[in-house]
Amino acid sequence: MQQKKQNEGKQKVCPVSSKCGGCRWIHKSYQEQLEAKSIFFRKLMEPYCRPEPMIAMEKTTHYRNKVHAVFGEDRRHNVISGIYEEKSHRIVPVDSCLIENQKADEIIVSIRGLLKSFKIRPYNEDTGFGLLRHVLVRVGHATGQIMVVLVLSSPVLPSKNNFVRALLKLHPEITTIVLNVNDRDTSMILGDRERTIYGKGYIEDRLCGKTFRISPGSFYQVNPVQTEKLYTKAMEYACLTGRERVVDAYCGTGTIGMIAADHAGEVIGVELNRDAVRDAVKGARQNGIRNISFYRNDAGDFLLEMAEQGEGLDVLLMDPPRSGSSEVFLNAAARIAPKRIVYISCNPETLVRDLRLLTKKNYRAAKAVAVDMFPFTDSVEAVVQLLR
């Protein structure tokens, strides 16, 4: 009976939560979520240090500024858009979502409504026929700028100019529209080719007093409100005085490196994603930052090269993907031996795996804090300060 009531409560909040899998904790109160995440993180960190109290969110809904929808057809050949059902490629139709930006959801519904009049068919994964595969919407939290990315199976959008005019009539707040071509049989959303059909092809957002450029494929944190808190804590742990040489590894569009540049002597950003590096270089120029440089390279290879050349380093900032860092990177970091390492993690379990190696290499975790970036999910972000 209790389980039935819980399921009914979930359906009232979100009708597709049981299929989607995105909001696993939709049935928990926010206080329950925080307590569960705090206990989980504290137990993980027990061998290393006692974490500070978790940093919570004030407004827990509609925080995702990057929204993706997959397009397809139902059994009656009506156009549908939404997300893949958990562990499948069946589309769960979604019009609005508890954690997604509301304006982005509205734009996706509008695009779906335009398809029939423009005779645009959604892509069918089984047959390979159809044109529109995905729509990606990115919203600048501070600027209000909006990017719409139409992911197509071929480069030609019928009546392109009329489609743009029709969409802008419904949503004049859109600042740029990009066509992305993904003609491969792949689970990746974006393809390698893209063309701007309206606006500049990118949007900008502000974070911690800096302006950042965001292209369709660039990494940028999806919860900017909590990201400011996350990066503020990272700067606190970095203890910069204005003289240090800093490496920002896995730097994305250079957000944390540019923020650190105000308080450091020199900052070096390293990132493998070409679009992100391009945005980082232009962002540094736009912000008038002269003491930062960016390199497109694998972070592990770059740090190993630094180690082999005997280069010095005072502070290492690292924000690796969910899979964590590589052994090559961590061994090279230990060889260079910066005084402080600030590890930003989106996956505490791989964080702890990497801490196990670093603590064997003459480092100790001095401080740690978890940041709740994703309410209603079991995900936790964290920052750890390691001292040599």
Reported for the largest beta sheet, the result is: 7 strands, mixed
Question: For the largest beta sheet, what order do the strands appear in spatially?
Answer: 3-2-1-4-5-6-7
Separation of the first and last Cα atoms? 55 Å
Percentage of residues assigned to helices: 25-40%
Q: Could you tell me the number of beta strands? A: 16
Rg value: 22 Å
What is the N-to-C order of secondary-structure elements (H for helix, E for strand)? HHHEEEHEEHEEEEHEHEHEHEHEHEE
- Number of helices, where a helix is a run of at least 4 consecutive DSSP H or I residues: 11
List the SSEs and their pairings.
Blueprint: H1 2-13, H2 17-20, H3 30-45, E1 66-73, E2 79-84, E3 91-93, H4 102-115, E4 132-139, E5 146-152, H5 160-170, E6 176-181, E7 193-198, E8 203-207, E9 210-214, H6 224-238, E10 245-249, H7 255-261, E11 266-271, H8 274-286, E12 292-296, H9 299-308, E13 315-318, H10 327-336, E14 340-345, H11 348-358, E15 364-371, E16 381-387
Parallel strand pairs: 5-6, 10-11, 10-13, 11-12, 13-14
Antiparallel strand pairs: 1-2, 1-4, 2-3, 4-5, 6-7, 8-9, 14-16, 15-16
Helix pairs in contact: 4-5, 9-10
